Amino acid sequence: MSTPPDPFCAPSPFDHVKADVILRSPDDVDFRVFKSFLSLASPFFETLFDLPQPSEEMNTDVEIKDGLPVIPVSEDSKTLDPLLRFCYPCTLSEDPALEDFRDVINVLEAAKKYSLDAIERTVCKSLFNPKILEANSMSCFAIACHARMQDECALAAKHTLRESLVPTWFEEIELITSSELLSLLSYHRKCGDAVQTLKDDLSWITAQYPQRNSAPWMIAMRFDSHNQCSCVRSTSGRFTLYGYASAQWWEAFMDSTFLDLRDKPCAETVRQNVENAIRTGPQRKCGYCSPTVPGGMREFGTLFINEVEELLSQVSSTHRRHLTMSDDFVTW
């Protein structure tokens, strides 16, 4: 029978020759660590290391390697490495950058297991790396609520606006109360309602474009005359600017954008609809407005996004103030 290979040694600083204990991961990586660092960070480790430690002279089942006791742990090396770096002083190891959601969750669970309370909050903050937050907003919200991290709750709540009003099931939903989930859904609905006011009052557009030749493509006008371009004008009258009905394609853009904003009231919704309108532009084959629409629509999209963001900010402030004053305060 072949002898199993020796465990690998973890990289610096977990290879120090003066370390006094070895933690071994299930994937056979040995971490040579100092008891004092771990004891200061964790009452769990403090209690563990206060127990009588085995030695080579003692007849125990504990493996001894290089004169040091080997303690098997359940966390793999990918989780154990960043966890231990958080425990070490910054002169020996900087806090690791966690950029994958599942890595953060694994380290967070390990921090809870070993009673690393201060480190748990530090690891939680890694969830609010934009890359992680954008892809896992609902989970990040639930974790921040559970950890009672108010600012992070508010930040995650804003990112959940990129998701549909009724979220699909996610593993971390069990971390939040029904009140917290209802508060989030209420916030989402209020944001969706707030941005609809932009549809009813177009003064934000005419303030930016005070004259009809500022953005003639909105109303199917030629930029060099008072004549209509080749685009069809709407007959619904829903969007009227400077006394003219809007271009039919622009009305369709506005209708679809506000419909999408009801479900996902965020800047990304506007941005996607702007790009969709630009992509379909060539289908209109209008020689007058087609060359100017891409740049004009992106400029208009920036204005639209700014208006949406301002309204969302107002809703956030009001929502948080209401929660703070209410008897049933829901973290954020």
End-to-end distance, in Å?
Answer: 60 Å
Overall strand count: 7
Count, helices: 13
Main sheet: which strands, in order across? Answer: 1-3-2-5-4
- Rg from Cα: 29 Å
Secondary-structure-based class equals: alpha/beta
Strand percentage = 5-15%
SSE series: EEEHHEEHHHHHHHHEEHHH
- Main β-sheet: number of strands, strand sense, barrel status? 5 strands, mixed
Q: How confident overall, as mean pLDDT? A: 89
Helix content: 40-55%
Low-confidence stretches: 324-329
Present the secondary structure layout:
Layout lengths: L7 E2 L11 E4 L4 E5 L1 H7 L1 H8 L13 E2 L2 E5 L4 H11 L13 H13 L3 H10 L3 H6 L1 H10 L3 H10 L18 H23 L2 H6 L31 E2 L2 E2 L2 H16 L3 H13 L13 H33 L7
Parallel strand pairs: 1-3, 2-5
Antiparallel strand pairs: 2-3, 4-5, 6-7
Helix pairs in contact: 1-2, 3-4, 4-5, 7-8, 9-11, 9-13, 11-12, 12-13
What this model shows, in words?
This protein has 332 residues and is an alpha/beta fold. Helix content is 50%, strand content 7%. It has 13 helices and seven strands. The protein has helices at residues 35-41, 43-50, 77-87, 101-113, 117-126, 130-135, 137-146, 150-159, 178-200, 203-208, 248-263, 267-279, 293-325; strands at 8-9, 21-24, 29-33, 64-65, 68-72, 240-241, 244-245. The strands form two sheets. The chain has a five-stranded mixed beta sheet. Strands 6-7 form a two-stranded antiparallel ribbon. The longest helix has 33 residues, at 293-325. The protein is elongated, with a radius of gyration of 29 Å. Mean pLDDT is 89; it is low at 324-329.
